[in-house]
Write a structure and sequence with these properties.
- By secondary structure, this protein is of the alpha/beta class.
- The protein contains 7 helices and 7 strands.
- The protein has helices spanning 2-29, 38-45, 61-68, 89-96, 115-123, 143-151, 170-179, and strands at residues 46-47, 52-54, 79-81, 106-108, 133-135, 160-162, 185-187.
- Strands 1-2-3-4-5-6-7 form a 7-stranded mixed β-sheet.
- It is globular, with a radius of gyration of 21 Å.
Length: 189
């Protein structure tokens, strides 16, 4: 019985240590009392002489997207990473209406919350005429949102489309494979 008690106590102490470390690390990474300074985030994460904007995991949300689309310093950006930012269909609408970014080649939007509504609107966007790669995996997109990209005329140079982790039927996957067979890379699984 004493061995059992020592094991339970040891597991409890280890669990408490993990909880304390996790909580401490979590608090050190995000200060929930201060609002996000979008200007500072953009300035600090605009890399490679202004050609790469890496806001992955910054959780800017739809409000941050609203700020981003009005920012004047994005003219040279060729790659933008907005994954893990809690962007909903509303943010997708805002993003799709931003002033044209003719230099943008790669747009990473994985792990957000576009849903069908956001994907359909985004598929009609004229803001990214030279986009070569679009990553929309894990965005709560279903058949209607994915199929909107088979009808789009606004991404004439798109060669890579990532829709992995969304909720697509087999029929939709087959339709995408057929309609988008010209693409260099189509990721559905």
């Amino acid at each position: 019985m004493k061995v059992f008690d020592k094991r339970v106590l040891a597991m409890g102490v280890i669990g408490l240590c993990v909880l304390v470390v996790t909580s401490t690390v979590g608090l050190a990474q995000v200060d929930i009392t201060e609002p996000l300074d979008y200007e500072k985030l953009i300035r600090e994460n605009l890399l490679r002489n202004g050609k790469y904007l890496n806001l992955a995991g910054k959780k800017i949300g739809d409000a941050g997207v609203g700020y981003l689309v009005t920012h004047k310093g994005l003219g040279k950006v060729t790659k933008m990473d907005l994954r893990y930012n809690k962007i909903s269909h509303e943010g997708a609408k805002i993003l799709s209406q931003m002033p044209p970014m003719p230099n943008l080649k790669v747009l990473i939007l994985r792990h957000n919350f576009f849903s069908d509504e956001g994907a359909v609107v985004f598929s009609k966007s004229e803001s990214f005429p030279n986009l070569v790669e679009l990553q929309l995996g894990w965005n709560e997109i279903r058949d209607a949102g994915a199929l909107a990209f088979t009808k789009t005329k606004t991404f004439p140079k798109l060669k890579k489309l990532d829709l992995r982790g969304n909720f697509l039927s087999e029929k939709t996957k087959q339709s995408l494979n057929t309609s988008l067979s010209h693409m260099k890379s189509l990721k559905l699984f």
